[in-house]
Design brief:
With about 250 residues, the protein is α+β, with helices and mostly antiparallel strands. It contains nine helices and ten strands. Helices cover about 45% and strands about 20% of the residues.
């Protein structure tokens, strides 16, 4: 992957960015992402049930059972949307010549593509910056890895009854495991029709970068545009005179 990726947007959105900074959208509140997150949750629950059925280890059976119970209790108490933490995402693409992206996100080429220096993204790591996955089996394997890595820490601080089933586990460890799993949902799209977008997604919780964690539709990245935006590529139908009004530092090529 190149250090530089592209964010397609309209001139109207660019004007807003010029006055503040690049903004990120709430995954659960906006567009098709709620469906993707809910589908990911269904896969997670199904994976836990499958692992419980397959496991020959009675302690692990109990482990899967208690995690399932806690998630179901949380769903019953809070509802599906409320179970997800506040996650905000920025979608980027490897492709600067993608006509679908120009038409869909840059108003049929009237907008622009921002060349983003991904090395400047705050707290960027392999945990919060990934290429979108369209394969459910990859998602399942990632979830199983997270679950198995969490098992020792949860078991070490758990009480077990005479049937070797966990009856009390430390909520902190289960919460951490669930948070890591939910983050995997943010990088999964079940609709393979979008595979040609070549999308990468940067995902953060606002409190991790010192921002208000209230349930807003958008938040602004706490980094100057001059550090993050390396250049602007106008679409084939972009009015460059209007672009220079919106973004005075733009130099016509």
């Amino acid at each position: 992957m190149s250090e530089y990726l592209y964010h397609y947007t309209t001139l109207e959105a660019l004007e807003s960015i010029s006055k503040t900074s690049l903004r990120m959208s709430n995954i659960v509140k906006l567009k098709g992402d709620p469906f993707e997150m809910h589908h990911g949750l269904d896969v997670f629950l199904h994976t836990l049930m499958e692992q419980e059925i397959k496991s020959a280890d009675e302690n692990k059976k109990g482990f899967y059972k208690v995690v399932l119970r806690k998630i179901i209790e949380q769903l019953a108490h809070q509802g599906r949307n409320e179970i997800f933490p506040s996650l905000y995402s920025l979608s980027l693409s490897e492709d600067i010549n993608n006509q679908y992206l120009w038409n869909t996100y840059a108003k049929n080429g009237e907008g622009v593509a921002l060349k983003i220096n991904t090395s400047k993204l705050p707290l960027k790591s392999i945990l919060n910056f990934k290429k979108i996955n369209y394969d459910v089996n990859t998602l399942i394997n990632n979830l199983i890895k997270i679950i198995d890595e969490s098992y020792p820490s949860i078991m070490s601080e758990s009480k077990v009854d005479e049937n070797n089933y966990i009856i009390k586990a430390k909520n902190k460890h289960i919460t951490e495991m669930n948070s890591k799993s939910i983050l995997e949902f943010a990088y999964y799209k079940p609709q393979r029709i979008y595979i040609n977008e070549n999308e990468w997604r940067y995902v953060i919780r606002p409190e991790h970068v010192g921002l208000d964690s209230s349930d807003q539709e958008y938040i602004n990245l706490p980094i100057k545009n001059s550090e993050l935006i390396h250049g602007i590529i106008p679409g084939e139908n972009c009015n460059t005179n209007q672009l220079m009004k919106v973004w005075p530092s733009y130099i016509r090529a």
